[in-house]
Design goal:
disordered N terminus
Length: about 325
C-alpha cells in the first residue's frame, strides 16, 4: 500500500528457474537401430555386431540429471533483498528517508564546530528532501487505485469499518494531498512561473496527510484487535488438537499461529510509525509552520529520524517473511 512521504521546505534549511537439466547430444538407441537396419536390410552378422556395439555405447551414456541450485551466500541474499527494496517506489523512498534524516543528524551533531562536514551534510539533507518530492509524483494514481480497489485495507477483514477507513479516510485524503504537494513543489522550485505561497499550500496538504495518519492509526487498532481475537481462538483450538494427539492438525495450527504473530508485530510497528508521524504532521499543518513552528528542530527531525529507521525495519522484516 502506498504511503505518504514526509516533506520539507527550503525555509527549514536553517533550523523475484529451477536448475536446468543437463542436455545429452547423443541420439537414442532406438534411432541408432533405425539407421543400422536401413544400411543393412538383410540383417547380417556385421549389422548385428554393430547393433550390439551401439547398445553398449548407448548404455554407457550418462542419464540426464538435475543440477542442484547452489545455496546463496550472504552477498547474494543481500543483493536480492536490495534489488527488491530499491525496485519499489515506496521502499525506495524509505531508503532516501534514511539518507535524508541521517545526514541531518550528523550535521546537527557537528554544527557546534561549524565544520565543512556539518555544512555539507546540511546541504545534502535539503537536497534529499526535494529528491523525495519527485517520487511523490507517483502517489496520486497510487492513491486513486487504492480508493477504487480498496487495496489499502491490506487484505480482507471481518470488520467492515477497516475497508471504509482505508478507502475514504486514507486513500481519499491522499488524493487531495498529492496535487497540493505538486503545487507547493512547483512554487518552491519555479517561483517565477508558479506564483503561489508554497508554504501555505504545503500546510494545507499536510492537513490531509494528518487525516491519513489518523485513519491509518484507527484502522491499525481495529486490525490489531481482530488479529488478537483470531489468535486467541486459534490457541484454544490448538489446545484441543494437542489433547486429541492430532499431530498433523497441530503442525498446521502452529504454523498459522506464527503467521498471526508476525502480522500482529507488523501492525504494532505501523502503530509506532503513526505515533512518530503525528506531531510532525500537525507541526507542518499549521499556517505559520515556517516562521513559528510548534516543534523545535531537534524534536521534529528526531521524530522523523526514528520513523525512518522504523519504516525500513518494518519493510525488510516483511520482505524476509514473504
Amino acid at each position: 500500500m502506498a504511503q505518504p512521504r514526509q516533506r520539507k521546505s527550503p525555509a527549514q534549511r536553517t533550523g523475484e528457474i529451477p536448475p536446468d537439466v543437463i542436455d545429452c547430444d547423443s541420439s537414442s538407441w532406438e534411432k541408432s537401430f533405425g539407421r543400422d537396419d536401413a544400411a543393412n536390410p538383410n540383417g547380417d552378422a556385421d549389422s548385428s555386431r554393430e547393433g550390439e556395439s551401439n547398445l553398449t555405447t548407448e548404455a554407457s551414456t550418462p542419464k540426464p540429471q538435475y543440477v542442484p541450485a547452489p545455496t546463496p551466500n550472504a552477498l547474494d541474499k543481500f543483493l536480492a533483498t536490495y534489488g527488491s527494496f530499491s525496485g519499489n517506489t515506496f521502499t525506495a523512498d524509505q531508503g532516501l528517508k534514511i539518507l535524508q534524516w541521517s545526514s541531518w543528524a550528523i550535521s546537527y551533531a557537528a554544527q557546534s564546530k561549524r565544520s565543512a562536514l556539518s555544512l555539507s551534510l546540511r546541504d545534502f539533507y535539503n537536497d534529499m528532501s526535494f529528491t523525495r518530492y519527485v517520487l511523490r509524483f507517483y502517489g496520486l494514481f497510487q492513491s486513486l487505485e487504492g480508493y477504487r480497489s480498496g487495496s489499502w485495507a491490506g487484505g480482507d477483514w471481518d470488520n467492515p469499518r477497516i475497508a471504509k477507513i482505508a478507502k475514504y479516510l486514507m486513500a481519499g485524503s491522499m488524493i487531495l494531498y498529492y496535487p497540493l504537494e505538486y503545487v507547493a513543489y512547483a512554487g518552491w522550485k519555479m517561483p517565477k512561473l508558479v506564483r503561489v505561497n508554497a508554504n501555505k499550500i504545503s500546510a494545507v496538504s499536510c492537513c490531509f496527510w494528518t487525516a491519513y495518519i489518523v485513519g491509518d492509526f484507527w484502522a491499525s487498532c481495529l486490525k490489531l484487535k481482530e488479529l488478537k481475537e483470531k489468535l486467541l481462538d486459534l490457541r484454544e483450538t490448538l489446545v484441543g488438537k494437542k489433547t486429541n494427539d492430532d499431530k498433523d492438525a497441530v503442525a498446521a495450527l502452529v504454523t498459522e499461529e506464527r503467521t498471526q504473530l508476525n502480522k500482529i508485530r507488523q501492525i504494532k510497528l505501523q502503530l509506532l510509525r503513526c505515533l512518530l508521524f503525528i506531531l510532525p504532521a500537525i507541526n507542518w499543518s499549521l499556517p505559520n509552520w515556517d516562521t513559528n513552528p510548534l516543534l523545535g528542530e531537534l524534536s521534529l527531525n528526531g521524530l522523523m529520524l526514528a520513523e525512518a529507521y522504523t519504516s525500513v525495519y518494518q519493510s525488510l522484516r516483511s520482505m524476509m517473511q514473504s
